[in-house]
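Lecture notes, part 5. Sequence design as translation. It can be helpful to think of inverse folding as translation between two languages: the language of shapes and the language of residues. The source text, in structure tokens, appears below.
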């Protein structure tokens, strides 16, 4: 497979048509997904902080007097005497969500930035691909568009926006490398674009810093020409400035409050925890029987890719690839759960690596190395800084998403021969995992929406739940106060809430646990695990 390095004009009618179709897709998903549900508690962290700034300040004003801050359900956040601060790590993104909410409403406005970010990602993929082979641009567009970024687009997270911005920055870096003129104006032009796009991403997501490190280190090693080193030097100015400003801004907000020290659980030893963190990041297939179908599907895809590489005419290879990709739909009928590992959630990368394997070159513009070297460095850096248990509830390694545009283009270039000969195989490998991801995400949204609706049916002032981070899941019920408890402390916590003169209390999630009705309260029991107490 010859890698072309001649670029074409990327701005065409075809690009506009593809963008309109994809924009319609993500808009439909934004409307389709339950407007009061969350994929994970991280959605509620963003929403809670927006609610707080809208109605008071960075500290969220509670509906009732503080009872037990350590049980408030705002995990991975700050608690102050003025209230919890759900998300102050990147204040610029909170203000972006505030602006979007002002334009599109408090619910859909929170999701619009992610949807726009997904469109920016596919736009960046098209731009980048035309620098290598303009005929592969549509394939790269949809490979990136149906990647785990599409699942991220259904959340309130900032991953898609950051990914699109650094994707544009990667395109600018490639353009800078191809522009061999010694003009200082060009150095500042391309270096400024690389720096500004990455700086904007750093204001939104922390891992954008790790991507930028991979970009500068990897591409400077691959292209050591004086003008390109100068371009990367220029790019460092806004990126470093953004990092310092973002940290200062976040800390200046925290300094306004007296943060309560809630002891965090001890982390596992760093070296030993890299194994489960790496498994979560790269491989973790699913839970239960669904994992079997994913693993079998991956095995068939590997075998089919090897067969195609050895014999591109082999019908058996096509069948193996189609069946392997199609197996990713089966877990839908069997208690679907998330797939956190990147390779398991985006198996096309595995096939692309096998089918398009070539000895890489480190010359000025070897396309494969320019696209996968920064991604490789990013992966190492994320793995080194990943939580011991992984990145929590996610789909396809969201902490690696800043590299998805570049690695998606790499996959499209590697799969040109396969796509030309057996497009059905590529279609199955791309679409089936994406469908599974959307279905699972929808299930989580619906489940959480139903949970919150049932718990707030009697408009309680306080909800006590055994579900961790209940407050963050129930962002649509703010300012209702949610507390997390288990069977060991539910009675004590309920007594504390009653002493605070709370009139309406809901207890949810304690299936089969005997809970006496407090004196002077009426009991409304909807089920074994949902009880309302209303002061008489």
């Amino acid at each position: 497979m010859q890698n072309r390095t001649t670029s074409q004009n990327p701005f065409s009618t075809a690009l506009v048509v593809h963008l309109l179709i994809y924009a319609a897709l993500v808009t439909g998903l934004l409307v389709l997904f339950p407007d009061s549900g969350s994929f994970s508690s991280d959605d509620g962290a963003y929403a809670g902080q927006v609610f707080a700034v809208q109605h008071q300040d960075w500290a969220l004003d509670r509906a009732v007097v503080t009872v037990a801050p350590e049980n408030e359900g705002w995990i991975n956040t700050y608690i102050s005497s003025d209230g919890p601060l759900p998300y102050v790590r990147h204040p610029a993104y909170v203000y972006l969500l505030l602006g979007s909410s002002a334009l599109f409403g408090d619910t859909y406005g929170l999701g619009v930035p992610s949807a726009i970010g997904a469109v920016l990602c596919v736009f960046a993929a098209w731009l980048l691909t035309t620098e290598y082979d303009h005929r592969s641009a549509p394939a790269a567009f949809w490979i990136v568009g149906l990647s785990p970024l599409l699942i991220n687009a259904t959340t309130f997270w900032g991953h898609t926006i950051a990914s699109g911005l650094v994707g544009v920055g990667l395109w600018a870096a490639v353009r800078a490398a191809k522009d061999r003129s010694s003009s200082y104006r060009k150095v500042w032009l391309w270096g400024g674009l690389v720096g500004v796009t990455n700086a904007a991403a750093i204001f939104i997501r922390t891992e954008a810093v790790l991507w930028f490190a991979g970009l500068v280190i990897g591409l400077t090693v691959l292209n050591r020409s004086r003008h390109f080193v100068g371009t990367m030097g220029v790019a460092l100015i806004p990126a470093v400035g953004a990092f310092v400003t973002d940290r200062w801004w976040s800390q200046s907000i925290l300094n306004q409050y007296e943060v309560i020290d809630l002891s965090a659980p001890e982390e596992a030893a760093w070296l030993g925890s890299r194994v489960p963190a790496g498994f979560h990041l790269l491989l973790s297939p699913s839970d239960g029987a669904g994992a079997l179908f994913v693993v079998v599907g991956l095995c068939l895809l590997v075998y089919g890719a090897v067969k195609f590489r050895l014999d591109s005419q082999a019908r058996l290879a096509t069948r193996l690839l189609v069946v392997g990709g199609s197996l990713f739909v089966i877990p839908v009928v069997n208690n679907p759960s998330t797939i956190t590992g990147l390779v398991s959630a985006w198996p096309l990368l595995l096939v692309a690596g096998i089918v398009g394997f070539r000895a890489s070159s480190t010359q000025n513009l070897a396309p494969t190395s320019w696209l996968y070297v920064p991604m490789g460095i990013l992966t190492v850096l994320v793995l080194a800084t990943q939580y011991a248990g992984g990145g929590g509830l996610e789909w396809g390694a969201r902490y690696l998403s800043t590299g998805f545009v570049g690695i998606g283009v790499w996959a499209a270039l590697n799969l040109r021969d396969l796509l030309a000969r057996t497009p059905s195989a590529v279609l199955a490998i791309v679409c089936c995992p994406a469908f599974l991801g959307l279905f699972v995400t929808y299930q989580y949204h619906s489940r959480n929406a139903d949970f919150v609706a049932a718990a707030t049916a009697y408009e309680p002032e306080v909800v006590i739940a055994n579900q961790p981070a209940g407050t963050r899941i129930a962002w649509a019920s703010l300012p209702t106060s949610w507390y997390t408890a288990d069977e060991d402390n539910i009675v004590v916590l309920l007594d504390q809430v009653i002493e605070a003169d709370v009139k309406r209390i809901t207890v949810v999630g304690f299936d089969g646990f005997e809970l006496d009705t407090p004196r002077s309260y009426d009991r409304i029991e909807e089920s074994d695990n949902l009880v309302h107490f209303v002061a008489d």
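The translated text above is only one of many valid answers, since several sequences can fold into similar shapes. The mean pLDDT is 88.
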